[in-house]
Fold:
Amino acid sequence: MENKKQAYNFASTLTEVYSLRSNIQQCFGFTLAEVLITLGIIGVVAVIIMPALITNIQGHVKAERVNNIQHKFSKSMDGMRTSSGLTGYNSTMDFVTELQKYLKLAKVCDNNNLRSCWPTDKVILENGKEWEISKTKQGKHLKMMNLNGQEWDDTVGIITADGTPMILSYNKQCSIDENKSITWSGSNSSSNGCIAAVFDWNGARNPNKFREDVIAFNANGLGSSCAIELEGACFSAPFTPTPITKAECEELKDSLGILYYCNSDYDYWAGAVKQCGGIQSMPTVAKLSKLAKYLYNTNRLNEFDLTLDTSKTASAGLSDEFIIWSNALQAVDSSSLPRAFARHYYSDGTISLQPTINSSSIQAVCLVD
Structure:
């Protein structure tokens, strides 16, 4: 009898437990549909947020890595500037040989073997074109022109001890004063003014794009510095010269090859000569004529039944109508404002001109070595 009573009590207790469980499930349970909807919402939010989050993380990693590379190089240059000096080296290779005392390098490559110091064959430029890294043989391939006071030498490839590949060129006319105080901007020291370089902050990882993976360090770019290459002549991108004063013209005329008495405080032609680094780096009248034949796809000049090839001008950074200074001067009376030869390129023809040196609407190009 006692056993039956205990069995009855156990059954009653078990019933109460199942009843309580059922009540809890009714209060706190989720249906399958509710679970799927919740997971779907979480998935949508993740799809929206994750790309931006990943991009932010990658951007932070890149910034830290780039700053670290620049900082290490700058500190090494500061040490070299203080101890050995940054001027007077005969070549980039001589400069790098001295730099190794202040920056640990795993490898050094001359400009005929750059690929051994670089992780990829090519770099994708900003215009989408590919540049073969082995062609980066001279400072001009870092888009550094030999302007007044600049003489960019052949390049040298290096790999730093932490694995950073870099290609650099030394300015043999560097005039940084070792006694002048060193200034910093971000991770970049003023000591770096003697070099132009590019480096790859993430090695062989794709897509190997310029400015994304390959960083310019005191350089103007990467690739050919020629806007137009024609019969062995390399024409730089066009620019509007900054005029110089009479006093500056008199001071520089001998070194630049200017052969007239300076009498204008707005001498745009002499400004072009200064920016190109001298008369010898300005195009001759004959070269401007050859440029015209190339741009109009003809051997006929000084006619107005021609058609300017706008695809060629656009790729060179030229407009549909422009004037370019030559390096030739027109003989004038000493009391008159000097004139220089130029060529006017219209959409339908071209002619030679002799504008005064204070003409502000004329562009210039340099002949790059």
In short: The chain has seven helices and 14 strands. The mean pLDDT is 86. Residues 52-225 form one domain. Helices lie at 2-28, 32-83, 92-99, 246-256, 268-276, 285-296, 310-316.
